[in-house]
Design a protein that fits this description.
The complex is a heterodimer.
Chain A (H helix, E strand, L loop, with lengths): L3 H12 L5 H13 L1 H19 L7 H11 L7
Chain B lengths: L10 H17 L2 H17 L10 H23 L19 H5 L10 H18 L2 H12 L4 H8 L3 H23 L1
Helix pairs in contact in B: 1-2, 1-3, 1-5, 2-3, 5-8, 6-8
The chains are: A mainly alpha, B mainly alpha.
Chain lengths: 78, 184
Amino acid sequence: MISCQEAAIICNKAQYREAKFLEILRLKFHVLMCKTCSKYTKKNTKLTSLCEQARLNALSEKDKLDMKEKLYPKSKQE
Amino acid sequence: MTTHVLQPETWVDQYADYLFNYAVSRVSDAEIAKDLVQETFFAGLKSAKNYKGNAAERTWLIAILKRKVIDHYRKINSNKGKAEVRMTYNSSTETDGDWLEEQVADPMSILENSDIENEELGMAIQDCISKLPKKQSLVFTMKTVQGMSTEDICNELDINPSNLWVMIHRARTTLMDCLNQNWF
């Protein structure tokens, strides 16, 4: 039996489809036993679907650096 | 009432993504949205002395951005014909002949509000993300929003995978709490 902490990590990996098959089996087994983790898994999955639904956008770090440079031209001296 | 102080040095880190999301939802073009955000920051710097401290910094910036979006639409409208009503039908030739039917609203649709709701949801999530510690929000955004692979992020930020998963875990847990009241 894996610990809740391990279960949480696997659950997070599963949100990004990066959990291995064996890990998922372990997680499923743990979730059957553990109410807290079962709740956590449900919420976590919901968060993933919310994030997908919202079609979030973000600027890349490079874009932000560009912006900063344009905004504060003097800070280039470093 | 608390008075707010402007801290332009932190603008890009704190508000760029939030403003960008707002802009994208209004002009639906990433490049234009980026320019609008940049212009907003410039305008903010220029008129910083007019800031009275009544509104929070972000509200103030969003207000500027709103003006910029309006200006943007004014400009593209004055470029082509003055305030003429233009309908753009589906430009793809594959749907030749069907265009009239496609313009009619589907009376059975329950999705009328979904765009608005999704936009609100996006802003809510962005708001919560911006409350995370810097490193966590960075990792979370790279992973979830930009969909980068674990390996790439680890290389870029010089951390190891287990480190990354712990940060993701903390970020997600905080986000769940933050979104809890309205969206779960």
